[in-house]
Amino acid sequence: MNTQKEIMTPCDTATSTHSTARSLHLSSLLLMASITCLAVLSELMPSGVLPAMIEHFSISQTQAAGLVGAYAVASAIFGIPLVSLTVSRDRKKLLAVLLIGFAASNLMVALSPQFHIALVGRALGGICAGTLWPMITAYGMSLVPRESAGKAVAIIMSGITVGMSVGQPCMTWIGRQFGFQFEFAVMALLIVGVMVLCMMFLPHVKGEKRSRENSPFTMLANPGILLVIVLTFLGVGANYGVYTFITTLISTFSYPSVELAQIWFGIGSIISVILILRFIDTRLHLFLVSMFVLGCVAMLVFYSLHFEMVLHGAFVLWGIAFGSLSSIFQTATARQVRSGTAVANALQSCSFNVAIMFGSTAAGFLLETGGIEPIVLGASAIFFVGMVLSVCTRSYFA
Fold first, then answer.
1. Which string of b and e fits 250-261 if b means at least 16 CB within 10 Å?
2. For this UniProt entry, which segments traverse the membrane (predicted)?
3. Can you give the CATH number for the domain in which 264 is found?
């Protein structure tokens, strides 16, 4: 009987090794995507149960916006110094500390008998978020070749899309059925579970040595970084100003439910992440301009056309614009530097969170003085400005 032994050539061995490495990297990136999913849910959960929180804590609409604003303020204030301070730390160990902070933040809100304690809990979450967002993208990008950096960021940030399209409606349902306290407690437990998986499966990656090149001041002298910071402020401020009060938007236009709006919004977000994964490394500028255009169109529809079927489409368009935010801006930031990606992204994240603070606070003021219509109209104007600026600065994103 003839037997044949398969002989592995060096080429076969190399191919097998590269395939295994790609598989391991994809698994790590997907696990990081689960972290961004839970992180964005931690940030946005109040928007789905805001009326219940207002009633429970006996606070005004503007104070309720502070539950989103405090998160953003803390993230903006502490993000850059903490990222600079921890830039040389092992990424895996730092991630564990941040996830513990996220879990504690949600647990504080769940158990809080008073508004001020919940506010502190939200601020703690913001501190962790300000450090997490720039760190986790730099962590993921360090696992892949530079030419695949955009795709790595898109995979990691796809967790945001899943969070907004699937997680947010589910968490809103849980909050409405069992109370917002139970909703935040569930989130704390989920974060602990993901932290355990991260400790088991994510690789250790050393941080960068502190140097002049990765100093925040050096980054701020880069015109490309400054441009991304401005565009981030415009895009995020417009989006979050409206999204913070999505429950009011729904009730004003007699739309069936928040959950249905979030489903259509989520469909748009899923479409955006599919397109981002396929094309972001070659079509970054097109995505940037399209995000502002679609956001502007969606807001104008909300302002002028209140037919249910048309509103379905508007939520899809808004989801496409909103769902691509983080991937576009983080990738755009990374394009402007060759080192110090985490610090550069920290500056972009600071702009992101300052925009959330200003957007939600300004929207809360407009809501109490003029209703939801001025918020929507103002957002459309901001999107238009962002569109014009992004069209005029193509060379930075080509």
1. bebbebeebebb
2. 26-45, 65-87, 94-111, 117-140, 152-174, 180-203, 224-246, 258-277, 284-303, 309-329, 350-369, 375-397
3. 1.20.1250.20
Instruction: Give the range of the structural domain holding residue 173, as residue numbers without chain letter.
Output: 23-209
Compute CA distances 69 → 46, 125, 279, 355, whole Å.
Answer: 11, 12, 33, 9
CB atoms within 10 A of CB 189: 12
Tokens of 128: 């962790």
Say what the pLDDT of residue 24 is. 55
Domain-located, residue 7? no
Looking at the structure, tell me whether residues 191 and 223 fall in a common domain: no
Q: Count CB atoms within 10 A of the CB of residue 190.
A: 20
Q: Is residue 255 pLDDT above 60, yes or no?
A: yes
pLDDT at 153: 87
Domain boundary among 179, 209, 239: 209
Residue with tokens 């994809």: 26
- Say whether pLDDT at 177 is over 90: yes
CA-CA distances (angstroms) from residue 334 to 168, 330, 342, 355?
28, 6, 9, 20
User: How many folded domains does the chain comprise?
Assistant: 2
Nearest-angstrom CA–CA distance, 173 and 180 = 10
Q: Are residues 243 and 367 in the same domain?
A: yes
Assigned domain for 13 exists: no
* Dihedral angle sign, alpha carbons of residues 302, 162, 139, 104: positive
